[in-house]
Amino acid sequence: GKTLKALQEKIRKDGIVLSDEVLKVDAFLNHQVDPVLMKQIGETFAGLFKQDGVTKILTLESSGISPALMTALELNVPMVFARKRKPFTQDADVYEASVHSFTKQTNHIISVSRAFLNQADRVLIVDDFLANGQAAEGLIDIIDQAGAELCGIGIVIEKAFQPGGKRLRDRGIRVESLASIRSLENGTVTFQEEAHA
Ligand code: G4P
Ligand code: NA
Ligand code: NA
């Protein structure tokens, strides 16, 4: 893994452990956004996937957009975010996938316009969190519908104690997490590995 030291430090300093399962990072990722850290995240993902001929970054609104945009800027390709709500006008020209949320016990439809993803694309998915992997599965479904190629998945914070990462890697998908959390028990963030640089 490519652990990002600045991200680990930010999580330790400004992350709030809400429970054994949930880490609040509203101070730099999910509400207020730290552009310097996002730029570093974008550079790191770009470096990891620079050999893969990526033509497009795909994420899901809203919190995936910041790291996805910085990655796209660095790789000089467009960033597309899947929408969670249906556009007001009924649009037949979209790919759709159903995403289940274990937290909210709901299903919602995500969609991407057919105009922005096609069989010539080589797609890197970027998202803020990886937990159960449902969002990533929905995005992969959309990439498959487009006939595009999935290059891999870049995740800012992986909760390694939840099953999404293993499930995706078991399918042979390259998943790169910049911070991988082993546990949030006792109100403490424990990382899978300590950063060196
Ligand atoms: P789930 O099955 O565990 O519920 O995960 P799911 O992928 O459905 O995630 C639901 C939402 O919760 C996602 O954001 C995801 O990024 C976020 N999430 C999952 N675990 C954590 C966590 O420990 N901390 C934080 N801060 N967020 C987490 P979303 O609903 O798509 O919202 P948005 O922030 O992208 O707008
Ligand atoms: Na997200
Ligand atoms: Na989120």
Automatic annotation (TrEMBL):
Domain Phosphoribosyltransferase: 40-160
List of residues binding 5-phospho-alpha-D-ribose 1-diphosphate: 131-135
Domain of life: Bacteria
Subcellular location: Cytoplasm
Annotated function: Converts the preformed base xanthine, a product of nucleic acid breakdown, to xanthosine 5'-monophosphate (XMP), so it can be reused for RNA or DNA synthesis.
Complex and partners: Homodimer.
Similarity comment: Belongs to the purine/pyrimidine phosphoribosyltransferase family. Xpt subfamily.
Protein name as annotated: Xanthine phosphoribosyltransferase
Species classification: Bacteria, Bacillati, Bacillota, Bacilli, Bacillales
